[in-house]
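Q: NADP-dependent oxidoreductase, please. Structure only.
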Amino acid sequence: MSDLSAIPAVSREWHLVARPQGWPTAADFALREVPVAAPAPGHILVRNLHMSVDPYMRGRMNDVKSYIPPFELDRPMDGGAVGEVIASAAEGFEVGDHVLHGLGWREYADVEAGQATKVDGSLAPLSAYLGVLGMPGMTAYAGLFETASFKEGDAVFVSGAAGAVGSLVGQFAKIKGASRVIGSAGSDEKVKLLTEKYGFDAAFNYKAAPVAEQLKGAAPEGIDVYFDNVGGDHLEAAISSLKVHGRATLCGAIAQYNDTEPAPGPRNLVAVIGKRLRLQGILVNDHWGLKDQFVKDVAGWLRSGELRYDETVVEGIENGVDAFLGMLRGENTGKMIVSFTG
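A: Structure for NADP-dependent oxidoreductase:
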């Protein structure tokens, strides 16, 4: 039985109020107050502690058919969140339990019990379940080991390598015996982080010189695997550097998410034929069969100290949109998290 006095009268939540044209602006969003009610049978009421902002959310702001429905206008947005159960009308969930669920972008969430997963804050900080132990970690794990068919001795190139997914891809490859791991990032500070903290063999600032030129310098003998978080000139450069029978996992194209015109494809796509390359997209939802192995491996690597991760934390739901826009601009190192205080 829940203590109904713990239920607040109102909750704040972010609504999308206009479809962005190009780069989103603050005017496309509104932070609104809504009433909070006790959970219905089979539901739990969760006070969100941390929420995720991710690149894929930009695509959901467009009213186009995709692998995931678009956000509705004048309705709360959603996304990964971790919180504490404050009222329960569902078997198996007690007040005080911590859960992972998909109703972020709000302070309090009424969650159907089947859509919530208990998480253990003693194994890792709760925010880690939105990053290294959550969807980004699983994306990196499945994208490298299953989609790209990584094997020991492969040379690997990762774009957007200081982000939530890329920083893990490079480390997973090193742990599993890559011959060489190269990363690109958008600042000299991030480049330094890749080599000094995450153990990449080489890294470069893609803003400093053409990507193809820098990649050839970092991997003169070519690469076997490319993990693409960026698209554009990075994909074109990778096609040039991939060896025969190379594999590329196409995870994201953040460089193009705010374009108002379609971006041109790689000019060297014909090389895919002669090199017999495999370019394959990944959606993490296709790979949840790997979840148990993923958690076992990653939790072990965290315990041993082999795997390191960073978070960029923005405090306060009122700053949620600023955090999202900052993530699109590459202002985060590792996972961008919005934490709720007070």
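A: Brief note, in case it's useful. The chain has two domains: 4-131+310-339, 135-285.
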